[in-house]
Amino acid sequence: MDTTAIAKPHDRLAELLADDMGAVNALIRDRMASEHAPRIPEVTAHLVEAGGKRLRPMLTLAAARMCGYRGADHVKLAATVEFIHTATLLHDDVVDESAQRRGRPTANLLWDNQSSVLVGDYLFARSFQLMVETGSLRVLDILSNAAATIAEGEVLQLSAASDLRTDEAVYLQVVRGKTAALFSAATQVGGVISGAPEPHVQALFDYGDALGIAFQIADDLLDYQGDATATGKNVGDDFRERKLTLPLIKAVARADADERAFWVRTIEKGRQQEGDLDHALKLLHRHGALADTRADAMAWADRARAALSALPDHPIRNLLDDLADYVVARLA
After folding, report:
1. pLDDT tens digits for 112-124?
2. Could you tell me the CA-to-CA distances from 130 to 64, 82, 127, 139, 190 in Å, in that order?
3. What pLDDT shows up at residue 34?
4. Dihedrals φ, ψ of 163, to 5°?
5. Which long-range contacts (CB under 8 A, 24 or more apart) does 233-236 make?
6. 162 or 100, which is more confident?
7. Among 113, 144, 235, 243, which is 20 to 30 Å from 226 by CA?
């Protein structure tokens, strides 16, 4: 794959959608204001303005533009998607006791857990207000279902994260919840608000679902072989936090008795010591877990690109195709 040809398609998408994204950012700033609780915009601005790619709201704008939408509700829906995403990040950092997000201190570290949870709740409430303003019951149905699925995925991850019985099917369920649900909702509502034909709406859902899964698998793989300066995470954070992501699940499934005892001690019991991460990496390589995880990410990216074939020819469709490649090109 020629990664130079597809370098940073999200930047090209941002350039193409610059006017719409400007309107989304203005709406976000307007709706995260609070007359009575100034901490709300303080906490929200710290995360919203941290330099994230705004990939999810861009997917909503891209889907609407590709389907020929001419109204203004796609801006409200894109802001809704970003608010849901930001709320989940605030809550996640409290649950994970994270100290860093996108290379910066997390809100719960700069303020406190209570502020992060309550501001997250405020953003969820704001997102529902924005959904309702579109007047589309189907949009409300899709995005409220996505919000419930995200929460469900996070709770499932709590019980599955350090349980060596967690298999690839459960992992996929967690990923569909915590990541893919918002990707697929973001693309699907762009089609719905445009009045696109049902096969196109389904194709947009399928694209978002597969893209989200590829994105998360790639993220989990980069935890074991990524560059900390590029990812904002230290290599092995998931291991230290005892998270059973796909590379570990594959290695555990192929472990002999001694290797399984190592995984029980380090992941299930959390009794980690010096040198354990290096040993874990050796086991991941020995069983081909990293290479197979990469192959899975590539396969999901291919499924995302295949879904686009049902959509009409459009410059944005080509960019979305490149985006699916780019998500996994990081793994090259």
Report:
1. 677 778 888 888 9
2. 17, 11, 5, 11, 14
3. 76
4. -100, 115
5. 233/100, 235/277, 236/277, 236/280, 236/281
6. 162
7. 113
38 CB-contact burial (10 Å; exposed 0-12 / middle 13-18 / buried 19+): exposed
Would you place residue 103 in the very low, low, confident or very high pLDDT band (cuts 50, 70, 90)?
low
Give the distance from CA 306 to its chain's centroid: 20
Cα 13 to Cα 111: distance, rounded to the nearest angstrom? 34
Q: How many structural domains comprise the chain?
A: 1
The whole-chain average pLDDT of the chain stands at 87
Residue with tokens 């096969």, as numbered in its chain:
199
Query: Is 193 strand, coil or helix?
Result: helix
- Yes or no: say if 182 and 85 are a contact pair by the CB < 8 Å rule: yes
| Inter-residue contact 293 to 247 (CB < 8 Å) | yes
Q: What is the 3-state secondary structure (H, E, C) of 140-186?
A: HHHHHHHHHHHHHHHHHHHHHCCCCCCCHHHHHHHHHHHHHHHHHHH
Q: Alpha helices, DSSP H only, in the chain?
A: 9-16, 18-31, 39-48, 55-66, 73-95, 107-110, 113-133, 137-160, 168-175, 181-193, 198-225, 228-231, 237-240, 246-253, 257-263, 276-286, 289-308, 315-329
Residue type, 255: A
∠ CA(200), CA(293), CA(323), 5° rounding? 35
pLDDT of 98 strictly over 80: no
Q: What is the pLDDT of residues 136-171, one digit of tens each?
A: 999 999 999 999 999 999 889 888 888 999 999 999
**Pick from 90, 88, 314: nearest CA to 183:** 88
pLDDT score, position 109: 58
Q: Which pLDDT does position 310 carry in this prediction?
A: 93
Domain that holds residue 93: 3-329
CATH number at residue 78: 1.10.600.10
Among 180, 177, 146, residue whose Cα is nearest residue 160: 177
Q: What is the pLDDT of residue 231?
A: 52
